[in-house]
């Protein structure tokens, strides 16, 4: 008797309960979108919208003044036979492929040097980090240029050691080493990240390896590198994507020309010249989309290959 | 048998205690030696790494003829004439105009980023709503997206709206959380805050706005400080954005003013160039000296670039 009387009341109360829960869920979703709205608006207006627009423009001829004219794949076919465009890839890839590993090797080496129990670590860490804050600025590009110019201080040092001098800024074969040195100089940011990663490696691993008679190089190869691989992955991916986008230093050092002899005609520089000096907005959009596809593919390969070489400790979690 | 073993063990003990004293002394010596090697090599490295920056600073006090090719850091002819020239500015626009423009842009960036990114980050970190994971993945995706693919349409639209030669194109993204790095940083920070805090507040009847304002924001102070410092410095050093959108010299920010200055002064006037380069970096260096702990920790935990 009591049972049958009770059953319907619980029924209605659960119905009311689910209704209330539904209402709460809806208001929760509403709150979610309300809080997300700044990012959502920015994403639609400043990222997704422009991406679609530039995809359309990539198939058009557009100079900002007359309406865009559909030309199909012409921008792309023109790009592939454009010697300046090929040069832009050559310059950019050389910079990415040489600059990034050298910078990260320097970062790792100094991080390992600093990962000792000695005092004064904070001071060294901050000092090495400082160039990362100012390295991409126009000020440093000007200083770099003054240092590497004909008869500049780098020349003086070279001559002191008996090397042939003559300045780096005007020599097409030396502008790339000069810009790579500038990026290597900013090894501090990845170094700080490496240092944080090194600190996470449990010292018992090294102690156990010592007991087993492992030497320093073996410990480095079998413990440090695998344990550090997530950090190496992160640094490599970020630094590479960063390197593709170099602009200010190359622009300043080449006086806004990409010279001498197109030796500093980086991808971003060439895109800027085409898009914002010649107003070939369709052509520049095609360039931008090819870059997105290449960087995207590179990142995908990276993530895919990471399964083989990146070890996450505590994988079970 | 048992006595033998005790004897040997005690003699062992004697020997080993004698040995360990010697060992301790020698490891202590070795450790001191290694510390010396460490400090010497680190200091040499610091000197090499900081040399270009110090050379720039010292060169700004040298007469122009004494700068190029002069490895020495100490000016033989100390002068502040370079700074007087730099302060005069270019084409009738004073240095302080550029400086003010840079300050407006940087402060605007800081306000925009801390507001918009913290609000959006709260949605990602604390509210459950359909599509959240998809949006989060898209947000991470924009971290890796080359900026080239959005600047052309953005420029076309801002140009059509007559917003070239205003600060709006440079600031609007900051107020719309377009800098995904900061959203990510704040989401990570919020996720590490104990959930019991907001659950307790919810039981007391607080809504999301109250929880965000009176619980999250005060607790997020470290993340907000780190974001503010980076937002300021990145905006301060930005070259590409101002190059695109600022055409009138009296709207120039410092980096593009500096480029114009280098273009217009004769190439031999290195002194004035160095002085202006130094002045353009002063706020960044001040931020670095005051907040280096926040900066380095921010990089270490979030992988932020300089």
UniProtKB/TrEMBL annotation, chain A:
Membrane-spanning segments:
30-59, 93-114, 126-144, 178-198, 227-253, 281-304
Compartments annotated for it: namely:
Cell membrane
Domain ABC transmembrane type-1 residues, every copy = 89-302
Main location class? membrane
Q: Which InterPro entries match?
A: ABC_transporter_permease, MetI-like, MetI-like_sf
Where in the sequence does UniProt note compositional bias of the Low complexity kind? 7-18
Write down the superkingdom of origin.
Bacteria
Q: Name one GO cellular component term.
A: plasma membrane
PROSITE patterns, per database record: ABC_TM1
- Region called Disordered, residue ranges: 1-23
Gene3D superfamilies xrefs: MetI-like
Q: Which family does it belong to?
A: Belongs to the binding-protein-dependent transport system permease family.
Q: What is this protein called?
A: ABC transporter permease
Which organism was this protein described from? Cellulomonas xylanilytica
From TrEMBL, chain B:
Q: Which Gene3D superfamilies match?
A: MetI-like (1.10.3720.10)
Pfam family name, one: BPD_transp_1
* Chain segments annotated as transmembrane: 35-58, 103-125, 134-156, 168-190, 211-236, 270-291
Q: Which PROSITE patterns match?
A: ABC_TM1
Question: GO CC terms on record?
Answer: plasma membrane
Chain intervals with Low complexity compositional bias: 1-11
Span of domain ABC transmembrane type-1: 99-291
Query: Where does the record place Polar residues bias?
Result: 12-24
PANTHER family in the cross-refs: ABC TRANSPORTER PERMEASE PROTEIN MG189-RELATED-RELATED, ABC TRANSPORTER PERMEASE PROTEIN YESQ-RELATED
Belongs to which family? Belongs to the binding-protein-dependent transport system permease family.
What is the name of the protein in this document? Sugar ABC transporter permease
- Name its species: Cellulomonas xylanilytica
